[in-house]
Amino acid sequence: MRLDKFLKISRIIKRRSVAKEVADKGRIQINGKVAKSSSSVKIGDQLQIQFGNRIVIYEIRELHESTKKEDAAQMYTLISDEKQASED
């Protein structure tokens, strides 16, 4: 499954166009490698996403073509959510 589609379906990022933009700016890594929106994801992959000064790491548990809102959180496990120290 494409990275941007996974982010939308799992509701980590609400819109696919936003997921594509974030990925294409180099803010997402899959298993430690910078990923593009068209990169393929599979079960067991770790996603590291930079949201401003936060770095969030998820592990993919399930892949679905579509999902209900209440089932979306089962597609991944939150591993870490850390704020980066701001550089003054």
TrEMBL record:
Which domain of life, per UniProt?
Answer: Bacteria
Q: Which CDD domains does its entry note?
A: S4
Supply the InterPro entries for this chain: RqcP, S4_RNA-bd, S4_RNA-bd_sf
RNA-binding S4 domain spans which residues?
A: 1-61
The answer to whether UniProt assigns keyword Acetylation to this entry is no
tRNA-binding found in the keyword field: yes
Against Pfam families, the record matches this protein to: S4
Q: Which GO terms describe its biological process?
A: rescue of stalled ribosome
Described function = Key component of the ribosome quality control system (RQC), a ribosome-associated complex that mediates the extraction of incompletely synthesized nascent chains from stalled ribosomes and their subsequent degradation. RqcH recruits Ala-charged tRNA, and with RqcP directs the elongation of stalled nascent chains on 50S ribosomal subunits, leading to non-templated C-terminal alanine extensions (Ala tail). The Ala tail promotes nascent chain degradation. RqcP is associated with the translocation-like movement of the peptidyl-tRNA from the A-site into the P-site.
Q: Which family does it belong to?
A: Belongs to the RqcP family.
Q: What is known about its subunit structure?
A: Associates with stalled 50S ribosomal subunits. Binds to RqcH, 23S rRNA and the P-site tRNA. Does not require RqcH for association with 50S subunits.
Annotated protein name in UniProt: RQC P-site tRNA stabilizing factor
Q: Which organism is it from?
A: Enterococcus alcedinis
